[in-house]
């Protein structure tokens, strides 16, 4: 089937989806070749929101470059910042105080839930159900308020700094988080009522956008996209950083490899994040939130790599240091880019409506892809 | 057997749809669940978090005095070149020259509210304000001078 | 007593006494035309407002609340905006067809108004084949969509139009079968007589299970026929941006928009007439006392109440369900609705012959 559709013949319909299109959630440009409603080829064109962040980082100090990473994958900015802080700490052997470690993990998991909430609403909207979008924002707003109180910002927090976190937690933090957990547990059943259990939704998702584990690995997919194929790839489990080796949580795996598997991975991951938060929220140790660091940070000469698990998959930072105050070369490995590259493989032979559903389950954040 | 499955399919499908419909009907009839904030109307009661990073300001006391020594730590800490410290030399009564700020220029349009300047400041001269309505008609209005006209440094701040 | 039929009769007698027969007929036609157009305008405003409020409340929002008391004038303001907007015709478009399409959509909606019984003894055209007329004319609406999609010279529009063509043509079958089950029970195609046949109870109660099945099929089919979510594949915002009306703007777009809402009203009016007794008040068999109390409520209120209930049902669907895919849409029709509809028709026929209804 795929071979037969592979060749470009006369009478193919070539459509530009994007850069301005409701389903791409940003400035992604897909050139799709159609045969009737059936997709023959998907060709992503990138670069519409390229800001050369990697090059920018080379001219910034190790304290300054963190804020730029909030602007890559803006839905998991805490986790990106976390990776930056970790790589500097790794290079300079800074010991992070235990309180700061717990705060970092709490913030990471809250961010992961917020990101998955937004993804859930946006994906339901891609499939034509508008109402879940607003319901998802209700829960996400609760998290945003917690973030705003403690970090002073709702989206681009810049809260993690080398050696700890910028400020101590807000006095209301624990109470608010507990309130959020009760709200979340009450509302998550509604998600099943409105979307997961819906027969139309299941038909749109099951058996659509199937990718085998081998293909997913060869495309470099990570995160829920790869875990939906049954491959264990949670960085928090296999390369534990911070406290993750001391916390109890399960890596969520589904085996089908279709859109519905990816969907279920994310939904179940939210529950795991809640589990992590519940373990930590009453056990925040007292103490400093920031280790004593030198005013000017200098990474020793060498190469450093640090990976973290963002809401979308493996996020990695590679730094080549010449021993100065700025990185000599910096490279980000963003999960969205690799996941997007698998889209063509998934979409061939399916319908336009499926393409939208697949893009929804890949959870693409365009600034993360372009950087 | 096929018929039984067929009928079962139809009924499970209808049931799943009915569950969704019940959920939306609940929200249709329960208006206390509405979460809309009527923004421009609730300005009087709208209170942002104390730590909200809106813009950089320099607090002055009643005598029009600030705490800025003009050390340019904030200028160095800023990743975007948002802050420009223009210094001058005051002549103290003893006839000595003393470094002080003439102007602390702040470009709001370049600022990413990363809080690095605030943490870098050794004398707590600047802080984040909780304002958020930054729209102006002309870009030049984004360039602000943070110290007041004729202000001078507080006694005892080095 | 003030009722629609009395007013119409008085006007009719007065016109015929004042003018000669031809002129009176002419004036009556003009009056009917004016009435239909104003009904259109009012319906458009009310239904858009209703849709926005229904969606807002389901989405835990407030909805329009600024223009006029409780935001009720919002749709007026929107209409005004659309009126003053530039109606562009794209360069590559087939200009004639492009500009003709919205008017055809509108005309179809207007024609469909004719055989509907709005109140007791009050309808524009007491047509003896009313039901057949409705299903015949409503098929024309697909032409306007195909025309718009083709003439726009836009690939999204074309895809939307093609989807719509496949969809409307197939769903008309099951809508027709559902209507047919009532026709079998009543033995007439005249809308007014169908209403009168429900004087001792509405068909949905009298005809019990088979009629309820055809009612469900009818609602699903007309939702698809009017291109409403979850069957809004012709517009499919997240897939085809705006489908067949991607290139339309200003008043030409508004006409499509208005035609959609008027179509919804009409199919709901037909559904109310066939299954819920049209303007017939809620009657139970021979409980004369109860029936007389129900008769006190004006018949037009009954009609509009039932129609708006069905409209609410369709809006409720729209704001709850995700969209189907094109092949699933056709599967639903050909593998589920049509066989069930046919079997159900058989059941209804048997029921009608054996008299197994109340």
Termini separation of chain A: 36 Å
| CATH homology superfamily of chain A | Cytochrome-c3 Hydrogenase, chain B
Shape of chain B: elongated
Low-confidence stretches of chain A: 1-6
Main sheet specs of chain B: 3 strands, antiparallel
Percent of residues in helices of chain A comes to 40-55%
Largest interface: which pair?
A-C, 31 and 29 residues
Query: Into which percentage range does the β-strand content of chain A fall?
Result: 5-15%
**Radius of gyration of chain B, in angstroms, nearest whole number:** 29 Å
Indicate the CATH topology of the largest domain in chain B.
Alpha-Beta Plaits
Give the CATH class of chain A: Mainly Alpha
H/E series of chain B: HEEHEEHEEE
Count of beta strands of chain A = 8
Q: What structural category arises from helix and sheet content of chain B? A: alpha+beta
SSE diagram, text form:
The complex is a heterotrimer of chains A (about 375), B (about 160) and C (about 350).
Chain A: H1 2-6, E1 13-17, E2 29-35, E3 38-45, H2 53-58, H3 66-69, H4 77-92, H5 98-126, H6 131-151, E4 160-161, E5 164-165, H7 173-196, H8 199-205, H9 213-218, H10 224-227, H11 235-238, H12 259-281, E6 302-309, E7 314-321, E8 329-333, H13 335-341, H14 343-347, H15 352-362, H16 366-370
Chain B: H1 2-29, E1 55-57, E2 65-66, H2 73-77, E3 83-91, E4 97-107, H3 116-120, E5 127-129, E6 143-145, E7 152-153
Parallel strand pairs in B: 2-7
Antiparallel strand pairs in B: 1-5, 3-4, 4-6
Chain C: H1 4-18, H2 21-58, H3 74-84, H4 95-112, E1 117-119, E2 122-123, H5 130-138, H6 141-151, H7 155-186, H8 191-196, H9 203-206, H10 208-225, H11 237-240, H12 250-275, H13 288-295, H14 299-318, H15 326-354
Antiparallel strand pairs in C: 1-2
Helix pairs in contact in C: 1-2, 2-3, 2-12, 3-12, 4-5, 4-6, 4-12, 6-7, 7-10, 7-15, 10-12, 10-15, 12-14
